[in-house]
Amino acid sequence: MVITRINEIRRLLIGAALITYHLLLITSCSGDFLEEYSQDLSRVQTADDLNELLIGDCTMPLGLFSNTGSYFQYQNANYAILHFMGDELQENLEISQDPDGVGIRNAMFPYFTWQQNCFVDYESKSTLESAEEHYWALAYERLNNCNIVIDAAQKMELSGTDETLRQQVLGECHFLRANYYFLLANLYGRAYSPSTADAEPCVPIKLTASVDDVEYQRNSVAEVYAQILADLDAAENYLKDKAAPRSIYHVGLTAVYIFRSRVHLFIQQWEEARHYARLSLTENDALQDIRNFASTAFPISASNPEVVYSNGSSCLGNLLFQAPSRRSSIDYMPVYSISDHLVALFSETDARLNSYITFRADLYANTPTYHKIDNSTASYGKYKEVSDVFSIRTAESYLNQAEAEAHLGGDQEACRLVNALRSKRVTTPSDTILTGQRLVQFIREERERELFLEGHRWFDLRRYQVDTQYPYTTVIEHTMTWYTTKKYVQMPSYTNYYRLEPGDDGYTLNIPKSVRDFQQSIGSNPRPVRQPFETVSY
Description:
Structural class: mainly alpha
Distance between the termini: 52 Å
Shape: globular
Order of helices and strands: HHHEEHEHHHHHHEHEHEHEEHHHHEEHE
Number of strands: 11
Radius of gyration: 23 Å
Helix content: 40-55%
């Protein structure tokens, strides 16, 4: 479709107003952009049409990792950057040859090492501008598609089962829009601090389906969170009398309540966080017992009773692993391993240590490896059942309520909730009996153990720093190894070490360069130049 450059850039700024609904796709490639949008939307006439649009255009694309026989490739890693910025992963320094068959080390370099400019690759070339733009544009595209469906649904007059489906779609769209604004706020805005949230710039709020010829300004952090909560109010109202979803790919009340309890944790509204976590556990308190889980099985799947919602699918495990790499006679070394910091949090009797993580001396040289969602070679070319970032599990409910209880002085109830979770995770659990700050710290560590590499940790690290009651900071160190050709083989040459200090501006991404260049009214976020503090040559 022919679209003017202005409209194309604006689409990337505020989301696509023209959706690619496969049943309703117009065939004409000429005419006015807004006119074509109107023609396309006019074909949405039934609740089933709305539901198709919801699934096809409002949810995340499916991730896929495949092996063509001669090379490996991936599609739709979505927001894998969340896993690379925190302290959950580390570069595997035991690999003796360049392992990056799909270019993920280069793509993740500016995020893994918190570079000032995320459009610059590890060779200091500006090759990653479209990738940097992707993380902004994808969320805005999806939330704007939600705007389109909401607008169309509100204009329909239906009855009976069609009206029920219309309300279901409206509830899901409001829930998804809240999710995408939450994601954008925690990538491009500072962590919510009650004393500064009204003044800190975040991201633009756009709630209409039209393409508006305006200079967009960023709303404040407080305004964006207010919109998130307004959308969750709407989602709850539309979904509260509906039957439970028939699959994890549709939103129900449990997912709304869990996510809302998370949002209230982020804005330090502890009573509300407790309230919604309680409501979610009333709806669904299922926990999977993994204490006797087969070590070869992958624990997070559509059949796990804890998984109440998933948006998109994961290829994370394969990105961390990629093609087999060789270390002496041992094959299959992962490119990125589970960090020493994370492994050290698990006791020997914690079943997650050998279920969420796997160690194999015969294949991995005891390197701790991602094992949550199927990343086996048998899964190449197949869509995974769940997402690594947009999945919601009941386990989070226990942790959300426990954290809120601990901040409110409900230490005994907080301990009960943590113990209930650990009774399904630890083979010989001892009851947690803690109070005050020690209890809060233990809950945070339990959150790490339970939810690692599910998109929580990076955002949690941000909010812990501005917790007015129990602030927490840490220093994170990452490495990047450079390889050079020796006898026709890419061999390690040197490794740079990088550090992220507490309160560092690197905790907030800058607005993508293409967005800043096109519309200067959006502004920018400060982000420091990052140099290695140590270099080790080989």
